[in-house]
Amino acid sequence: xxxxxxxxxxxxxxxxxxxxxxxxxxxxxxxxxxxxxxxxxxxxxxxxxxxxxxxxxxxxxxxxxxxxxxxxxxxxxxxxxxxxxxxxxxxxxxxxxxxxx
Length: 101
Known about the structure:
Blueprint: H1 3-35, H2 38-68, H3 73-84, H4 86-100
Helix pairs in contact: 1-2, 1-3, 1-4, 2-3
């Protein structure tokens, strides 16, 4: 496969997943801070679990590709780092919710 085909197959979706997870998490955080609703906390906890599982599956897939597609390692490392950037953000968001609750 060419580099362009790899980008279309994995990179675009993994980046969309990372950005989507960040956007939904941010929206839930803003709503919680503004509304102070217990239902939103429950929804947020379920969201964190679902997002964790989805991102973990993508991380495992990208890791597999990293070790099997040796000519595209730099590309997959960047995609993995983009995906992993959501972890500290999630912890900061959970701390904000805990302090405002």
